TrEMBL record:
Top-level taxonomy: Bacteria, Bacillati, Actinomycetota, Actinomycetes, Kitasatosporales
Pfam families with a match to the protein in the record: DUF2752
Keywords: Membrane, Transmembrane, Transmembrane helix
Transmembrane segments: 79-99
Domain of life, source organism: Bacteria
Protein species of origin: Streptomyces mashuensis
Protein name: Membrane protein
InterPro entries recorded: DUF2752
Amino acid sequence: MGAQSGRVLERSRRAAAPLAVAAVLGAAVARVAAVDPSRPGAGPYPSCPLLRWTGLYCPACGGLRGLHALTRGDLPAALHANALAVAGYAVFAVLWAGWLLRTLRGGAGMRVPLRAPHWWALAALTLAFTVVRNLPPGAVLAP
């Protein structure tokens, strides 16, 4: 085996984990794209237990509808379904791309460069989003 083919093989091996994640998530996104979660009784999508038992929207309510809208190229509908989830999808895509590039360059695996205060701020943002979307003034954030 030549030096060039050895480098290609090594890069392929390093990229296996990020590409496997992309394949699994790609299949899940394809399923959401094919079966509209906003249709009653559509597919295997479970209903939100918090919404069913309390009538309150959880931070993830509308996330699948938002993903479905994104696969159709309808960003306004996606943001209306769940703006926080759409932002999360974008952040995940950037982190995944960084992971892939880092592994192809021979670096360490996936790293999320956040310290404890960042995680607390993210939790506070999620809680605030959940509270506001369940109040009348925040109805625009409800799915």
